[in-house]
Specification:
single chain; Aspartate Aminotransferase, domain 1; Aspartate Aminotransferase, domain 2; 5-stranded mixed β-sheet; 20 helices; about 45% helix; binds pyridoxal-5'-phosphate
């Protein structure tokens, strides 16, 4: 073993060899040294644990390809682009919504230059960052006033803290939802200082359940969108307009956490949710929803409703801690402007485009992807088209399948679909797909046509890698 250590090339020799590569030469030198040292440390451990026995394997030119790959992979930014072939449009783990080009341009402008973020161009004096999107939001939703914060979780917290701190908020037992992460309505309620008053049963809640629970301690009535689950069968939910009328009768505000909140009507079918406009028109006092779910904009929590309440929410000191930054604001305004014409929105907002892609379009695109892969991969894999289903994701439209056509791939030469899947995640530009019936499946719904060559290159690399 001691003998083997003597066969290890010197770190300096390895560094010198690596520096012949332009790409590696451009790396910060301390980072490069750390990565090389890490690689050698692992080699020494392999020798110590007798995983390496042959001195021939320790020659610099034998080690070099592995060392280069390790350095390249170690030097990559940790947070990076991936190709989403899962067919889940608002994929929470893959960054939810992809922004429209108009929103990207706005972000670039907002961060590359100074802006009127908090400056009034009319008076030449201090302005408000909230003035940029409020008129747009009012116009699009029909609400009297609007405010935007960091995300919808923050919006719900801020709304409850402002409107019901120390008082009871009446919520149906069927709507005590957990969104994921640690966002659960009962716990958010507790943190905000409001007191949860559950009414009704899991599957059925009636208007009289809310009314019977109203006391002098009641601060608000609340509806929560059952984003990521559905109760089917013998069910009863109180509508927004019934609850709004009840609130009015008792002088209590009515709020709704809409979750996704769509500004376009998807025309019924599998996607038959009320739009934000409809919920506002039902007479609710305050409604909140996410910017990066079905809306297809940046991460944000949008709060719309009656001016009286929005003004109070705006003045809550907690608002300062939850405020949105200028990049978000730029992306949000640009996205909302696309909605001024719903047809433009459905053609330019990627999330909407992906959700509304028709089965026929997807079949044509799946064929195109299969043909491209067939040409590039040759005998490395067997390809087939399969009927399948995509999901909206992001806790929107749960259990509703969107029909699609999948490109199913079986690697030749004994590689399993699981192995292929793992290799695809290790690439510089990782490709995320799913496995069905032992085949690696790609859903064209969440891929842009311009990404097909990248998908092909990723597969080629993963199928051929040692
Ligand atoms: C997604 C969701 C939230 C959280 O919204 P974020 O924008 O992710 O913070 C809150 N409530 C409901 C009902 C949701 O669906």
């Amino acid at each position: 073993m001691a003998n083997l250590f003597r066969h290890l090339p010197s770190v300096d020799a390895a560094l010198a060899a690596l520096l012949e590569d332009r790409e590696l030469m451009a790396l910060p030198r301390p980072l490069l040294k750390d990565l090389v040292n890490g690689y050698f440390e692992a080699l020494r451990e392999d020798i110590r644990d007798e995983r390496i026995a042959d001195p021939a394997g320790l020659k610099l030119d034998v080690l070099l390809p592995g060392l280069r790959a390790a350095v390249r992979s170690g030097a990559r930014p940790h947070f990076r682009r991936v190709l989403n072939a899962t067919g889940v449009v608002i994929h929470t783990n893959l960054g939810r919504s992809v922004l429209a080009p108009q929103a990207m341009d706005a972000v670039r402008d907002a961060c590359a230059h100074y802006s009127n973020l908090e400056f009034s161009l009319e008076s030449g004096e201090r302005g408000s960052r909230y003035s940029h999107v409020e008129p747009l939001l009012c116009r699009l939703t029909g609400a009297e006033a609007a405010l935007v914060v960091n995300n919808n979780a923050a919006a719900v917290m801020l709304v409850l803290d402002t409107m019901a701190k120390g008082r009871e908020v009446i919520v149906s037992r069927g709507q005590l939802v957990e969104i994921g992460g640690s966002f659960r309505i009962p716990e958010v309620m507790e943190k905000s200082g409001a007191v949860l008053r559950e009414v009704g049963a899991t599957n059925r809640t009636h208007l009289r359940d809310y009314e019977d629970a109203i006391t002098g301690d009641t601060g608000a009535l609340m509806k929560v969108h059952c984003s990521n689950f559905r109760i089917i069968g013998f069910t009863k939910e109180v509508s927004a307009s019934e609850l709004a009328a009840l609130g009015q009768k008792h002088g209590l505000p009515v709020i709704e956490d809409l979750g996704s909140g769509s500004l376009v009507d998807f025309g019924g079918g599998a996607l038959d949710e009320p739009t934000v406009q409809q919920v506002v028109a039902a007479g609710l006092d305050v409604v909140s929803f996410s910017g990066d779910k079905v809306l297809g904009g940046p991460q944000a929590g949008i709060i719309v409703g009656k001016k009286l309440w929005i003004d109070k929410i705006r003045k809550n000191p907690m608002n300062r801690a939850l405020r949105i930054d200028k990049m978000t604001l730029a992306a949000l305004e640009a996205t909302l402007r696309l909605y001024l014409d719903p047809l433009t929105a459905s053609r330019t907002v990627p999330t909407l485009k992906m959700i509304t892609a028709t089965p026929d379009e997807l079949k044509v695109r799946a064929r195109r992807l299969r043909n491209r892969l067939g040409k590039d991969l040759g005998a490395a894999a067997e390809l087939a088209l399969l009927p399948g289903s995509s999901r909206v994701g992001g806790g929107s439209f749960p259990e509703r399948d969107l029909p699609t056509t999948l490109v199913a791939l079986t690697p030749s030469g004994g590689m399993t679909a699981d192995e292929l899947k793992a290799r695809l995640l290790n690439l510089a530009l990782p490709l995320v797909g799913r496995i069905e019936d032992d085949r690696f499946c790609l859903d064209p719904r969440t891929l842009d046509d311009k990404e097909f060559p990248l998908v092909s290159a990723a597969l080629l690399q993963a199928l051929n890698a040692e």
